[in-house]
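Dear support,

I submitted the protein below through the web form. The confirmation email said the job was done, but the results page showed an empty box. After a refresh the structure appeared. I'm attaching both so you can tell me whether what I see now is the final result or a partial one.
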Amino acid sequence: MVDDERLMKTVKKLAMLAARNPRLAFNKVRTTWRTEYLAKLDYKFRNGYASAPTSVALKLTNACNLRCKMCGQPREGHVPGDAKYAPASFFKERVSIARYKDILTELKKIRPNIYLWGGEPFIYPDLFELVRYGKSLNFTVQINTNGLYVRKYAEEIVACGLDDLIVSIDGPEEVHDDVRGLAGAFRLLKEGIVAIQAEKKSRGRKHPLLRVRGTISPYNFEHIYTLTDIAKELGADSLNFNWTWFTTRQTGEAYQKMMKELFDTDARSWIPYETEVILDPDKDRKYDGIKTELARFSNNSTDLPISMSPFIKPEQVETYYENIYETFGHETCYAVYSKSYILPNGDVTPCPDFPDYICGNINDDHFLDIWNGERYRQWRLELKRRRLFPSCYRCCDLFLSDVRFI
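What the results page shows now:
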């Protein structure tokens, strides 16, 4: 009976989201189907080749206006030797709007979902032109943002036809500002969301859908459930929880060694993500806090669609952080058969957070030629042979299909 009730709750919440944006819902179903079924057939029978991707993520810029505690991406202001250091030129890399339009034109027959991220995507100067062009070709387009520029561009965000705006929030104002490293960050994003909701109402539009995304981490472990009230207050269409992505020194060094031996690549992207949670003297209190917060969702009766990826039960929290080799039933990565990432310099990579292996560059070749080119196939085949690389254990794409409503 409990499982039946949970199933009915899930169906109801999926129906609510589908009614608000049927095309986006269709793409979500298509992506899940590809990952669960078709990608597995490609994996088993096609010798490294993959069917057309259902999602292409454009990392528009490496630059960002925040310094979030749990983020492992390189950031401005660091010096050589720091884990998050990158040269100034790294933050200026940018694909031209003309080249992006060429890529969308190339992809219009298969119409993957277009996911825009960064860094902070609103720093990219031609963002709205890119969204409008994508919508003119009937793509679904999403933006993942930290929310600082939402108030400034509220009118354009609604007018451009964007399907989905994903805003990251860590908790109440004082918690969010502390995690994000900027006083006033919560106030700015809240004012921006209020402005967008008002703009949608004045134009009589349902889009973009507003999704609040919370990252479960040791920094907000006592305030996870409060995001439910925050999301409802902001009029969000859904709330999604992700877990902190991290690696350990042992797995990071194993990954670096493997990449050198297999691909002659000096892979160092793991270093900023190294987190030895097991050494934290306060870890037990943090684990207990996360467990308590997760347990509160068992009595959640709100109609707000709330999902979690991966789906970690309260009793699995300690395992998630202390046994990185436990992947909760996900024994290999199928995302490399359905998703791809284009970096700000045009490089195409199968992995978003560890982009050490480059399959080609869109400034030199057509994307679809790269997608099933020699280097992409080599990556897929080596991953199939090993099932997982040492960098995979806590990567978001490993748990791509493990999204459940709570």
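Response: this is the final, complete result; the empty box was a page-load delay. The mean pLDDT is 91.
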